[in-house]
Amino acid sequence: MTGGRPCRVALRGLEAFGRHGALPAERELGQRFVVDVALDLPDCPAAETDDLADTVDYGELAGAVAAIVEGPPVALLERLAGLIAERALADPRVETAEVTVRKPHVALPQPVTEASVTVVRHREA
Questions:
Q1: N or C: which end of the chain has fewer CB atoms below 10 A?
Q2: Is 103 marked active-site?
Q3: Which one from 40, 103, 110, 117 is the annotated catalytic residue?
């Protein structure tokens, strides 16, 4: 319908259980991960059409993100966030994906609320 009307579709605080980590105990025991995803769409006609087909379905996105977190383990949060960003960019409407993966229970000798990694990926021309 109308072009050039950008929007940002986001999920905040999606929780899923995974077995990611560099240490064997992290993979054996697993833990809860919290993910934020923000997707920039350079054209989002859904604001006018009110049609789900004209935007990213965040329900479908949530299921895909949870499946990645619950899927095969990786060692680093950077890799996990990268996999989620790659999945988001598989939608041709998405120009930029910003993904933050948080690990609320970090095994460190110092008190830490959480560890997190944020990656930003852009669609390659």
A1: C
A2: yes
A3: 103
